[in-house]
Amino acid sequence: MTYPNDTADPSFQLPAALWLVSRELRPSDARESWSRGTAATLKVGLHFDVVQLFSGIVERGIRGIKDRDGIENHFRAVGITSAVIVSRSQTAYSLLVPPGTSQNWKEPGAKCIGIDHLINYLGVPVPTRREPPGAHWLLPAPEDDHMLCDPTKVRMLIGKTRERQGRTG
């Protein structure tokens, strides 16, 4: 089986794709996975750490309809506008945050993975994949460090859920 080369698929030349693989030892492995329509396995801690949030944590903080638009608006309401992946099973969100975030992360119920973790890889969909099936980007893939999620805003998102739970339960 042959796969398209990097220049044959224009999505591999997009700024987000170039940035995501730029620190990988073998960026061609990621591009090959993307060309097959599967998520690429990227090393966490090089460009980004990852905060993993179960969908329940995110969705309990939403008032109203919990469809894709409602979830996107929930993230955007606290200032998170990019770098959010929905898992293949749609049961978790991976928020790409600056490298080193995991060293000081202490939010209960939200795991942050960095370079020092035993398992420090993440399945990352091709940056143009915005819909299921499979893992996909809820919010656009980052094109540079400035597009990563701000850990303070991630904490605000988690706090909105806790605040809502305190009022309803």
SSE class:
alpha+beta
Total count of helical runs of at least 4 residues? 5
How large, in whole angstroms, is the Cα Rg?
16 Å
Strand proportion, as a percent range, falls in: 15-25%
Strand order of the largest sheet: 5-2-4-3-7
> What string gives the helices and strands in order?
HHEEHHEEEEEH
Mean pLDDT comes to 90
Q: How far apart are the first and last residues' alpha carbons, in Å?
A: 55 Å
Helix-residue proportion: 25-40%
**Can you summarize the main beta sheet?**
5 strands, antiparallel
Count of β-strands = 7
Observed structural traits:
169 residues, alpha+beta, five-stranded antiparallel β-sheet, two-stranded antiparallel ribbon, 29% helix, globular, disordered N terminus
